[in-house]
Every structure is written in structure tokens, then in C-alpha cells.
Amino acid sequence: MSNQKVSELSSASAPTAQDLVYLVQPAGSPTSRKITLVDLFAAVPSKGVFTVGINIGTSPETISSADTADLEKVTHVEASNSGWSLIVPAGSEGDIKVIVMDSTGGGTVTLTGTFWNSSIALATAGASVTLLFSGGKWVVIGQSGTASVT
């Protein structure tokens, strides 16, 4: 590599946190160094800090009858009948959970679990809630459509 330009190196298509990156620090006289991706991104200031993974890009789950939601996936709900509940299990501090009502044949789905709110129900297509696990309970931090939160 000592006789190759950086632009001549082959591209990495699936970098990992421990991969090394070439770094030039310009203070004083420029110095060539190495740094891992995890250390590089740890030094980038940001307004928000996530200490848990948010798996929006994973395949969502679809639930159409009483069941327990997977905390690692966005949950799509289809209700063709009324009166069933979707259990949202306890999470870890800072977890975020998204639940979306895809379609309804006149059904209402009530969310059950440990919530700061007393009642959360989805009754029409497009209704959704975004939940944050904080202080040992889920709290609604966003809702759309006709999500009923009391």
C-alpha cells in the first residue's frame, strides 16, 4: 500500500465497527494515523444520543389476532374483528416501539402492557403510536390518525 494512492484502493462494501480508517490530523505538521469507525463516529457531536438500537430497517411483523409484539420490529396490525389485545412487553430504558394499524374490518385493537397512559387503542387504518420505554413504563411520544390515547 505504501506505493498506492488512497483513491486507488478497492472499496469496502460492508464495513464493521472495528474496521480501520486512514486519518490525517492537520494540527501543526500533518500526521497520518489510523482510527476505528466506532472511535471516529464517537467523536462526532450530535444533538441526540441513542444508547439502544432502533431497527426501523428490519422486516416488520404483521399481527392479526391476540399476540405479543416483537420489540425488535415495527409492528403492523390488521384487525378484522373487534375486541382483541396486542401485548407490548416491558422494554429496556430508552427503547422505542412503533405500532401501525394497516387495515381494519371494523375492529379495534387495544394495547396492553405497562403504560404511563391508561388506555391506547387503534381503530382505523393509518392510526399509529410511537412509544418510548422510560421509568419502567411505555409512554406515547407520537401518534397519528385516530389512535386513541387516554
Task: Give a written overview of the molecule.
This protein has 150 residues and is mainly beta. The chain has 2 domains: 15-49, no CATH class; 61-149, Jelly Rolls, CATH 2.60.120. It has one helix at 37-42; strands at residues 20-25, 31-36, 61-63, 67-68, 75-79, 84-88, 96-104, 109-113, 120-122, 128-134, 137-144, 148-149. It has a 5-stranded mixed sheet, with no helix packed on it. The chain has a 5-stranded mixed sheet with strand order 4-6-8-9-12, with no helix packed on it. Strands 1-2 form a two-stranded antiparallel ribbon. The model has no long low-confidence stretch (mean pLDDT 80).
Taken as a percent bin, the fraction of beta residues is: 35-45%
Structural class determined from secondary elements:
mainly beta
- CATH level-3 fold name of the largest domain: Jelly Rolls
Give the C-alpha Rg: 23 Å
Unreliable sequence segments: none
Q: Summarize the biggest pleated sheet.
A: 5 strands, mixed
The strand line-up of the biggest sheet is 3-5-7-10-11
Helix percentage range: under 10%
Number of helices: 1
Give the SSE string.
EEHEEEEEEEEEE
- Rounded mean pLDDT is 80
Under the CATH scheme, the architecture of the largest domain is: Sandwich
Cα shape: elongated
* Number of domain units: 2
How many β-strands, per DSSP?
Answer: 12
Cα end-to-end separation: 63 Å
